[in-house]
């Protein structure tokens, strides 16, 4: 997941050689029933989780029992099972900075009728948000050595982080968490913490697993806000330095 590379540090016109730890980025090919589906740029590690999470959040997989076999050979994942790629683009590239580029429409992805997110039950303690973000930062071990990866974490009703994944792609980090937690769906009492911005793809993944809350250090997009509002998700952005913006779902916040 990390690799030491040679570099130069330049300060006040003086260049000195040094070695830096850099996050590894490599392509992962995913084949479904003998057909290429997607090549995703990711940080190696937890490739099975990433694959399952991506299949689920893109609406191709609804039950682990539909998977008959998964083989992982270096940077290739071969999946056999009751999975249909109808309506999904084949053979495209998913970069570490975007979602599944060129995929089927959002309406087609959500047509699988994701879990209904209840407006009741889950609440967020305003005073605990800063503590959550500080704990997120402390757990970013790969970021500490490379400075080049995103982090996504799950937190529970008691504002405790229960899982975390890091990757060069924030979408990959979220998929890795979803992939290893498929048996826990819906995430009715679990929220997501994001180390970066909130695109609609990130909200879409939260919708697909039934999570009621997203808290992010960065900014949301207009489509992310619209999608969160449509599904009753509490969306919080620019969470830093003891302040944050609430874009949707403010009723879940408690003092």
**What's the count of strands?**
15
Query: On the 0-100 scale, what is the average pLDDT?
Result: 88
SSE run: EEEEHEEEHEHHEEHEHEHEEE
Rg for CA atoms: 19 Å
Beta-strand proportion:
35-45%
Number of domains: 2
**Reported CATH architecture of the largest domain:** 3-Layer(aba) Sandwich
Name of the CATH first level of the largest domain = Alpha Beta
Instruction: Report the sheet with the most strands, covering strand number, pairing sense and barrel closure.
Output: 6 strands, mixed
Structural class: alpha/beta
Distance between the termini: 40 Å
Compute the number of helices: 7
Break the fold down into its secondary structure elements and pairings:
Blueprint: E1 2-11, E2 14-23, E3 26-32, E4 35-42, H1 47-57, E5 67-73, E6 76-81, E7 92-94, H2 106-110, E8 124-125, H3 129-138, H4 141-146, E9 150-156, E10 161-167, H5 170-179, E11 190-194, H6 200-209, E12 213-216, H7 222-230, E13 234-240, E14 243-248, E15 253-254
Parallel strand pairs: 3-6, 4-7, 8-15, 11-12, 12-13
Antiparallel strand pairs: 1-2, 3-4, 5-6, 9-10, 9-11, 13-14
């Amino acid at each position: 997941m990390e690799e030491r590379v040679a570099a130069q540090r330049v300060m006040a016109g003086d260049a000195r050689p040094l070695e830096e730890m850099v996050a590894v980025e490599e392509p992962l090919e995913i084949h479904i029933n003998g057909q290429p589906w997607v090549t995703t740029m990711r940080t190696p590690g937890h490739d099975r989780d990433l694959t399952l999470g991506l299949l689920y959040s893109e609406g191709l997989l609804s039950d682990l029992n539909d998977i008959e076999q998964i083989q992982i050979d270096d940077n290739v994942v071969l999946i056999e099972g009751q999975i249909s790629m109808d309506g999904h683009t084949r053979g495209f590239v998913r970069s570490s900075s975007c979602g599944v580029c060129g995929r089927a429409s959002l309406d087609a992805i959500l047509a699988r009728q994701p879990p209904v997110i209840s407006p009741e039950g889950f609440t967020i303690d305003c005073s605990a948000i800063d503590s959550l973000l500080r704990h997120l930062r402390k757990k970013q071990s790969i970021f500490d050595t490379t400075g080049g990866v995103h982090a996504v974490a799950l937190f529970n009703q008691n504002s405790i982080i229960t899982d975390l994944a890091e990757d060069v792609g924030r979408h990959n980090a979220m998929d890795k968490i979803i992939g290893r937690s498929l048996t826990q769906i819906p995430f009715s009492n679990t929220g997501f913490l994001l180390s970066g911005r909130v695109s609609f793809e990130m909200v879409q993944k939260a919708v697909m697993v039934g999570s009621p809350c997203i808290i992010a250090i960065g900014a949301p997009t207009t489509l992310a806000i619209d999608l969160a509002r449509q599904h009753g998700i509490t969306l919080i952005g620019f969470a830093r330095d003891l302040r944050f913006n609430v874009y949707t779902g403010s009723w879940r916040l408690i003092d």
